[in-house]
């Protein structure tokens, strides 16, 4: 690594006053995971709380990605190159589209099962001793939680995307007591925290061999999917299992009740469109200021491969994973993936990246730029990314305005009304009309 980040070391009280209080906390869980005396824990809202005496070591504030992420310095640290805000993909050496040959793993995943497949393979060959992933609570199966998976069945049980705030990096505190090598599956904000950790606590960071990032448009508050279940008419007490991408590809909100009944909450509306509504209703304020959609500082980044975005040879590869290989560690890992014979892997030219993915990345950055300029002008807290924030055009500001409208009126009754409409026959009609409108007015490719 070619550059040492300039990191702030303050006691936990600094996070309370400057990060958690003003709404800048990403709820990544790093402060819990890195705290040497273990006196930080997670509240029901997923925010960190102090449970003992802070020793003022400053590890929590130094690793925190909420208030300060130096993108230019990170780019020099990880890639030894400068940062370009206009590059939607970030530093990418090679793109791949892939899926495991294991049908069970492939079909259990949200978009091809490559994250689960790679972790399962690495564990089987002794390359890692476990992985930090997101699973579900055994007592409250609609609740998500961070998990240190150390067996193949445990890794496979944590397959599929979870679209709500989960401070999974809190699990890193378990690694302090363990020897071995581990992989961590992380959202972009969590990747930022992990790269900071490499500068702060090299002993703990040295146990993390692979950082696997996930493409991320936004996440949801912890109660978002719970309110969706209840709006559909299912009491949470009757839920035996919940999946964000269940019921076959591309999947959707899917409940298994305790009596064995399987209930898809939406069958005729694509998950990406349902999530667009959910993000407006439940997107955390800090997520709306994030400029990293594709986990730009991970070793490998993973996302949906929407086959209908492509033509010719790639169009047939439905239910696959799109992979951005970014670092030398990621390159070596992909070489093993191709060599072992357990995966089907195709290379994708940079010029043929998914237009849908790039549109998502552009939308996330634009929304953040609008929010950042508004925060600067209004004297509110905002994260410092250490580069000049592009000034959004009037058209971009108008595009974000509709999104912001939801933010202002999303009280409980309004959320429930929107969800009941979304999951009703009238919601399907509205969805089809809106899709047609997009096709006509903005050449939308559905």
UniProtKB/TrEMBL annotation:
GO molecular function, one term: coenzyme F420 hydrogenase activity
Alphabetical list of PROSITE patterns matching this protein: 4FE4S_FER_1, 4FE4S_FER_2
Family annotation (InterPro entries): 4Fe4S_Fe-S-bd (IPR017896), 4Fe4S_Fe_S_CS (IPR017900), Co_F420_Hydgase/DH_bsu_N (IPR007516), FRHB/FDHB/HCAR-like (IPR045220), FrhB_FdhB_C (IPR007525)
UniProt key word Iron: yes
EC number(s) stated in the UniProt entry for this protein: 1.12.98.1
Keywords recorded for this protein, A-Z: Iron, Iron-sulfur, Metal-binding, Oxidoreductase
UniProt domain 4Fe-4S ferredoxin-type: residue ranges: 16-45
Key word Iron present: yes
Alphabetized Gene3D superfamilies for the sequence: 3.30.70.20
PANTHER family: 7-HYDROXYMETHYL CHLOROPHYLL A REDUCTASE, CHLOROPLASTIC (PTHR31332), FORMATE DEHYDROGENASE SUBUNIT BETA (PTHR31332:SF6)
Official protein name in the record: Coenzyme F420 hydrogenase subunit beta
Record organism: Desulfoprunum benzoelyticum
């Amino acid at each position: 690594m070619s550059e040492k980040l300039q990191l702030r070391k303050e006691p936990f009280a600094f996070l309370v006053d400057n990060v958690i209080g003003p709404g800048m906390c990403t709820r990544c869980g790093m402060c819990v995971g890195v705290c040497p005396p273990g006196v930080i824990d997670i509240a029901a809202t997923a925010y960190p709380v102090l449970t003992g005496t802070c020793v003022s070591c400053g590890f929590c504030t130094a690793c925190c990605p909420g208030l300060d992420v130096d993108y230019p310095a990170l780019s020099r640290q990880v890639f030894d190159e400068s940062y370009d805000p206009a590059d939607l993909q970030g530093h990418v050496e090679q793109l791949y589209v892939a899926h495991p040959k294991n049908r069970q793993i492939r079909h259990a995943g949200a978009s091809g099962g490559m994250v689960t497949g790679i972790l399962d393979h690495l564990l089987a060959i002794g390359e890692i001793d476990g992985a930090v992933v997101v699973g579900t609570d055994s007592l409250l199966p609609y609740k998500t939680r961070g998990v240190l998976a150390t067996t193949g069945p445990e890794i496979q049980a944590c397959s599929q995307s979870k679209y709500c705030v989960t401070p999974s990096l809190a699990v890193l505190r378990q690694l302090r007591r363990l020897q071995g090598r581990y992989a961590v599956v992380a959202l972009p904000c969590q990747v930022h925290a992990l790269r900071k950790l490499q500068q702060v606590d090299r002993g703990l960071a040295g146990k993390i061999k692979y950082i696997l990032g996930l493409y991320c448009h936004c996440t949801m508050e912890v109660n978002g999917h719970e309110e969706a279940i209840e709006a559909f008419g299912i009491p949470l007490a009757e839920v035996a299992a919940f999946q964000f991408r269940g019921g076959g590809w591309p999947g959707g909100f899917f409940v298994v009740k305790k009596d064995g009944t399987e209930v898809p909450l939406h069958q005729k509306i694509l998950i990406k469109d349902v999530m667009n509504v959910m993000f407006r209703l439940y997107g955390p304020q800090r997520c709306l200021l994030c400029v990293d959609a594709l986990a730009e500082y991970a070793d490998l980044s993973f996302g949906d491969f929407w086959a209908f975005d492509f033509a010719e040879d790639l169009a047939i590869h439905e239910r696959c994973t799109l992979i951005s290989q970014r670092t030398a560690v990621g390159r070596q890992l992909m070489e093993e993936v191709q060599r072992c014979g357990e995966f089907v892997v195709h290379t994708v030219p940079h010029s043929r990246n998914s237009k849908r993915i790039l549109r998502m990345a552009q939308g996330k950055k634009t929304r953040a730029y609008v929010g950042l300029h508004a925060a600067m002008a209004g004297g509110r807290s905002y994260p410092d990314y250490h580069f000049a924030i592009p000034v959004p055009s009037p058209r971009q500001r108008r595009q974000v305005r509709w999104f912001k409208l939801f933010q202002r009126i999303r009280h409980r009754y309004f959320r429930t009304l929107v969800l009941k409409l979304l999951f009703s026959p009238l919601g399907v009609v509205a969805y089809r009309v809106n899709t047609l409108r997009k096709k006509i007015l903005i050449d939308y490719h559905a």
